[in-house]
Design a protein that fits this description.
The chain has three helices and no strands. The chain is an all-alpha fold and about 100 residues long. The chain has a domain of about 35 residues: Histone, subunit A (Orthogonal Bundle). The longest helix is centred in the first third of the chain and has 21 residues.
Length: about 100
């Protein structure tokens, strides 16, 4: 595949980017080098190479998800700047707007 200014223009349009002429020249060079590097991979003999499903044979050791009560409601209310008897009072974030 040949990278030219029209290819860069199309990619820039898809990515919603704008480039000046100097930047466009650099991008053409960079993309050409990337494609040349990827083209080198086609030279490798991968006939008897199994495709990788996982990058490693290791298995993640996950802990069991357990609910733990770390703080009581009273402790939480004690540290809240505004509160009533059972709840923390926070500023209103959503407003009902009939015009929307």
């Amino acid at each position: 595949m040949k990278i030219d200014n029209s290819t860069v223009d199309k990619l820039a349009d898809l990515a919603k980017l704008e480039f000046d002429a100097e930047s466009k020249k650099e991008i053409v060079k960079d993309l050409s080098r990337v494609l040349d590097f990827v083209g080198k991979l086609n030279e490798l003999d991968t006939e008897n190479v199994e495709p990788l499903v996982y990058m490693t044979d290791e298995t993640n050791v996950l802990r069991k998800d357990e609910v733990v009560q770390e703080i009581t409601q009273q402790d939480a209310l004690r540290n809240a700047p505004k509160k009533d008897s059972d709840y923390i009072i926070v500023p209103k974030v959503l407003q009902s707007n009939p015009e929307v």
